[in-house]
Specification:
This protein has 211 residues and is an alpha+beta fold. The protein has two domains: 119 residues, no CATH class; 77 residues, OB fold (Dihydrolipoamide Acetyltransferase, E2P) (Beta Barrel). It has four helices and six strands; from the N terminus they run H-H-H-H-E-E-E-E-E-E. Strand 5 and strand 6 form a beta hairpin. Helix 1 packs antiparallel against helix 3 and helix 3 crosses helix 4. It is elongated and about 60 Å long. This is Inner membrane protein YqiJ. InterPro entries: YqiJ_N, YqiJ_OB. It holds the Pfam family YqiJ_N.
Length: 211
């Protein structure tokens, strides 16, 4: 079956969008979307809707890598699953499925698959700083958990401001293995190991951050 066939139209469009994103990134225009993280209200009740939405976002992998990378992975997975569905339907049935039905099925399957792929990807991608500073200087700085919940072995995305006030979006885990850091929670960076920053909740801290 041809990718350009009518029943594969949604998946061909997804692949074209992914290529366009790659071109934008290569041209440097992707930086225009560098702050495309899901907004968080730090005053939200972490045990209410924020906890539910944070858990869902964490499962989907949103916030673990820059949004454009997440979107590119999602588009690729959506297209691959969709074309596979149509191929199986063509071989086992009388022909391919309706393109919109196939798109719905592919979309439903693509979201959790994207989350599963993004989580290990987040551990090898460099942090996306907005200015050239020594990352070790972020130790002792305050920040906020942007999406999901950070647990031992499961980093979440956080925004940390350096001493110049510039924001840096990095992956963080709790300093204490048994602890959890929730979406919207204020944290203090206490150490760094490669691309992972280890934090404690500000309410539990014993030491003031460096100023």
């Amino acid at each position: 079956m041809s990718l350009l066939a009518d029943h594969n139209l949604p998946f061909a469009v997804a692949l074209m969008l992914m290529v366009m994103l790659a071109i934008l990134q290569a041209a440097g225009l992707g930086d225009l979307f560098g702050e495309s993280d899901v907004g968080v209200d730090p005053d939200m009740d972490a045990d209410g809707d924020a906890g539910v939405s944070g858990g869902l976002l964490s499962i989907l992998g949103i916030g673990r890598v820059p949004f454009l990378i997440w979107l590119a992975v999602a588009l690729l997975v959506f297209a691959a699953i969709g074309v596979s569905i149509q191929g199986v339907a063509h071989n086992l049935a009388y022909g391919p499925l309706d393109r919109w039905l196939a798109a719905v099925l592919a979309g439903a399957a693509a979201l959790p698959v994207t989350g599963a792929l993004v989580r290990p990807l987040a551990r090898i991608l460099p942090a996306d700083e907005t200015s050239a500073v020594d990352l070790n200087s972020l130790v002792g700085r305050r920040g906020i958990i942007l999406n999901g919940r950070a647990a031992a072995g499961y980093p979440a995305r956080a925004r940390i401001h350096d001493r110049h006030g510039h924001p840096h979006h990095v992956m963080v885990e709790p300093h204490e293995p048994a602890a959890e850091l929730r979406e919207g929670e204020q944290v203090l960076v206490v150490r760094r190991d490669k691309e992972i920053f280890y934090c404690v909740a500000l309410e539990d801290r014993r030491l003031e951050p460096e100023r």
